[in-house]
Design brief:
By secondary structure, the protein is of the alpha/beta class. It has nine helices and 20 strands. About 25% of the residues lie in helices and about 20% in strands.
Length: about 375
């Protein structure tokens, strides 16, 4: 794959820059970033496509360590994660930049940002862990933009959180190299990975990426780690929502990841460079849900629409309602204390506690600076 040559910046030191591990020198003054399969080759002072990794003094540095685009306490279901600590609050944050170029990006104001004010919030890892604990958040989510581009910062925050009993959640496209993911994901407790389509043409044409590295990351996550995994696919009318693609994608997931990986089919709304398309019809979400269930996906969900029936978690063995949801609010809870169906005692896959959280659908913007020691 041809390496992207990022924009040339001035040769002054990048603010907030820290050293990174995943790069090597090319011997001609350039360095190659090895954090993602894009393998950007950077001249002195040059940034990669992600915008946040750059060549400074002959090494790749992360320019946004300790700088965020904002913090907010959300319901964990918004990530979306339905089988990981349901009902609990999660402290969410991101930085700027992204290593994909999705023309439909729903967070483009953050992921595509090049403005300093976007990453004006400053917080070191211990401050974030302290804020999460003080706010009652059970986890911290690395989201809004892809955490693989700020993996050193995310790992440092995750270690501080783990020391405080706070879990870490990666919301990611999974576009990361084998060496970098071996550093990044052991620090995570859960991940929601975007499987954006099941076509290499879609990934190349619409996202500026490739499908194979994402599938490789998914298989590795599922079989080589203990990270709780859920999937999300944003269904875009006319681009990744055909019966043939949904059939192939759902069969691959069941065959390669197993039937127990929860999957969220979510509605697209016109944004960024795809404003000429209509929103995803509800019928498309229902069709994708039906195809997934027919092909063996035990826990398929619809998202970005109000659909209590397809948002509910049921026992895959006897169809008993286990968790009811109305939007991001837990409306019913019938799991046993050890995470089983009360009727047939079949375990429900996930990371559950004896009782759910009661955070509901609230969204609470916060300033971690308020929680400095």
């Amino acid at each position: 794959m041809r390496a992207f040559q990022g924009s040339i910046m001035d040769h002054t030191a990048f603010p907030s820059a820290v050293a990174t591990r995943h790069w090597h020198a090319l011997g001609d003054g350039r360095v190659q970033c090895d954090a993602c399969p894009r393998f950007c080759r950077l001249r002195p002072g040059q940034r990669g496509l992600c915008y946040v990794r750059a060549n400074q003094d002959g090494a790749v540095v992360l320019t946004t360590w300790g700088r965020s685009s904002g913090f907010c306490v959300d319901p964990i279901e918004k990530k979306p994660l339905n089988h990981f600590l349901p009902g609990t609050p999660v402290l969410s944050f991101g930085t700027a930049g992204c290593n994909l170029a999705c023309t439909f990006c729903q967070n483009w104001d953050i992921s595509k940002s090049r403005a300093r004010h976007t990453i004006a919030d400053r917080a070191d890892p211990e401050t974030i862990a302290r804020a999460a604990r003080s706010l009652g958040a059970r986890s911290v989510a690395y989201t809004y933009n892809d955490p693989t581009v700020f993996l050193e910062y995310a790992i440092d925050v995750a270690h501080a959180c783990r020391a405080s009993g706070i879990a870490s959640v990666a919301v990611t496209a999974g576009y990361i190299t084998a060496a970098a993911r071996a550093d990044f994901f052991p620090a995570m407790d859960a991940a929601n990975v975007d499987l954006k389509a099941f076509s290499d043409d879609f990934y190349h044409r619409v996202c500026g990426a490739r499908l194979a590295p994402v599938l490789d990351s998914l298989g590795w996550l599922r079989h080589e780690t203990r990270v709780w995994l859920e999937l999300t696919t944003l269904l875009i009318p006319g681009h990744n929502d055909s019966d043939a693609e949904l059939e192939a994608m759902t069969r691959w997931v069941v065959d390669n990841l197993g039937a127990d990986v929860p999957w969220h089919f979510t509605a697209f709304h016109p944004d960024w460079k795809m404003r000429d398309l209509p929103p995803t019809p509800r019928a498309t979400l229902e069709r994708a849900h039906a195809i997934a269930r027919t092909n063996g996906v035990r826990h398929a969900y619809t998202g970005n629409v109000r659909d209590p029936e397809r948002a509910a978690t049921r026992c895959h063995a006897c169809a008993t309602l286990l968790i009811g949801r109305d939007g991001y609010r837990i409306s019913a809870w019938h799991l046993t204390a050890d995470g089983r169906c009360p009727r047939c005692h079949t375990p429900c896959p996930g990371r559950f506690e004896a009782t759910p959280g009661d955070w509901g659908a609230r969204r609470l913007p916060v300033q971690p600076g308020d929680f400095h020691a």
